[in-house]
Design goal:
Blueprint: H1 2-32, H2 37-51, H3 55-86, H4 88-91, H5 93-116, E1 119-125, E2 132-137, E3 144-149, E4 154-158, E5 165-170, E6 177-182, E7 188-193, E8 197-202, E9 207-213, E10 220-226, E11 229-237, E12 241-246, E13 251-252, E14 259-260, E15 265-270, E16 276-281, E17 285-292, E18 297-305, E19 312-319, E20 324-331, E21 335-342, E22 345-356, E23 366-368, E24 381-384, E25 391-395, E26 403-407, E27 414-419, E28 425-430, E29 435-440
Antiparallel strand pairs: 1-29, 2-3, 3-4, 4-5, 6-7, 7-8, 8-9, 10-11, 11-12, 12-13, 12-14, 15-16, 16-17, 17-18, 19-20, 20-21, 21-22, 23-24, 24-25, 25-26, 27-28, 28-29
């Protein structure tokens, strides 16, 4: 009886020992990622050989260990899953490590940006008597700059070499100019005015070559060239009409080109292919239209509500890489928004970043910063004006503290900003008619 009792006690102790070792093995594997299975089984086998009476009992013992191992694996997995739910830091350990490295890269990148965007005032223009409504450098040109104003004039300036000078001050509009754009070849500039006309100017001659009259005699707020054919000009008016003009004839290209939105069309831009036209209105909606150049048909495809009930004042589009694109939006009150698309799939559009800026009343505008090296190719560097009299440059990919630089020299709200192609100069126009040229430190 005593022998049987001792035997049963030894078997219970052995069983508890096996359970403990199996559980310990599983915990060590989960924690350190190492395999302790062989060493544990060897220890089990050694104990079995020292205490077993025959080969059959040893085989039964090993089978029992395997069954118990499966049982404890299930229990351990359940415990681990519960721990991950209660303490997300455990499940996100690897993610945290990756984020730490990403944050370190962001810090390094931001230090480089701080040096790159270190700016000083290079020149000040006072060519306008009214608010500056647009400033834009010519495409792939370091020196040529155009600015339009609420006083109805268009100024074309040369900022390099110093001293900066105004080449032309073009007059003709009978009301404020609200928007302007260079043609891809820099030969022409189109302006949109509240006098219900858009005008096309010859840059080299300093003359108006064509007047495009709104079909319903409505105020025109925005305009742009078709990127792949600058003979096509798009305008948006205060009655929500989007119209396409043939520059050669000066009339509407086709009845299929007319589209309408519910609200004033206040901003528009194309992607580089010329097939997708983004339109923003004063009701806070961003619309997407697809243009077919072969049959001159403009089709509405999608509506994005970015800030319902408030004005969209600026739109800019950029292809970040072969797979990803971005849409930059200024929206009242006080929002700078960045949307991203994958593979030009409109259904994939999502809001990537929202930044608060000072904008309650004025038509503040923003733009993407040019890419001057491979490190910036996929980045979302943007520049915007603000009603607090400052110019801001952000990296919209930074999750924390996206501000790169804040430029403070204006005495009035900054309406529009523009950068030349090699990022050596920045221009900013304010509500008092002043345009400041900033020299950027881009030698790094």
């Amino acid at each position: 009886m005593r022998e049987n009792s001792m035997k049963c006690k030894d078997e219970d102790t052995l069983q508890k020992r096996r359970d403990y070792l199996n559980l310990r093995t599983q915990i060590l594997e989960q924690k350190f990622g190492q395999s302790f299975e062989n060493s544990s089984l060897n220890s089990y086998s050694l104990q079995n050989r020292s205490r077993a009476n025959n080969k059959a009992s040893s085989v039964d013992s090993i089978s029992l260990n395997l069954d118990m191992k499966d049982n404890f694996s299930r229990k351990l997995n359940n415990f681990t899953n519960m721990s991950n739910i209660l303490n997300p830091k455990i499940s996100n350990l690897n993610l945290s490590r990756e984020s730490l490295h990403s944050n370190q890269r962001s810090v390094n990148s931001k230090q480089n940006y701080d040096e790159l965007f270190c700016a000083q005032v290079n020149h000040v223009f006072n060519n306008h008597t009214g608010s500056v409504t647009g400033v834009k450098f010519a495409n792939n040109d370091r020196s040529l700059l155009a600015s339009c104003s609420f006083d109805g004039t268009l100024a074309i300036c040369q900022v390099i070499p110093t001293p900066a000078t105004m080449i032309y001050k073009l007059e003709g509009h009978k009301a404020p100019i609200m928007d302007m754009q260079w043609s891809t070849t820099n030969d022409l500039i189109v302006t949109a005015s509240l006098d219900a006309t858009a005008r096309v100017w010859q840059v080299t001659k300093g003359k108006c070559m064509r007047i495009l009259r709104d079909t319903v005699n409505s105020e025109i707020f925005c305009c742009c060239f078709l990127p792949i054919n600058e003979n096509m000009i798009f305008t948006g008016n205060s009655k929500g009409l989007i119209q396409v003009y043939n520059l050669s004839t000066g009339i509407i290209a086709s009845k299929n080109c007319l589209q309408k939105v519910n609200g004033k069309v206040q901003a528009m831009c194309f992607d580089s292919t010329g097939s997708n036209l983004w339109v923003g209105d004063n009701n806070g909606a961003v619309h997407l239209f697809q243009f077919n150049i072969y049959n001159l048909k403009l089709n509405k495809t999608k509506k994005i509500i970015s800030n319902n009930g408030y004005s969209i004042t600026s739109l800019s589009f950029k292809h970040l890489n072969s797979k990803e694109s971005a849409l930059l939006v200024n929206s009242m009150p006080n929002f700078l928004l960045l949307y991203k698309l994958i593979n030009s799939d409109i259904q994939s559009i999502r809001l990537r970043k929202r930044i608060l800026i000072k904008q309650n009343e004025l038509m503040i505008k923003s733009t993407f910063c040019p890419v001057i090296n491979k490190k910036q190719q996929n980045s979302s560097l943007v520049c915007t004006g603000s009603e607090d009299n400052c110019v801001y440059i952000y990296d919209m990919d930074f999750d924390e503290d996206p501000l790169i630089v804040k430029l403070e020299k204006h005495e009035y709200p900054v309406i529009d900003v523009g950068l030349n192609y090699d990022l050596s100069l920045l221009a900013s126009g304010d509500n008092n008619g002043t345009v400041i040229i900033w020299k950027m430190n881009n030698q790094t």
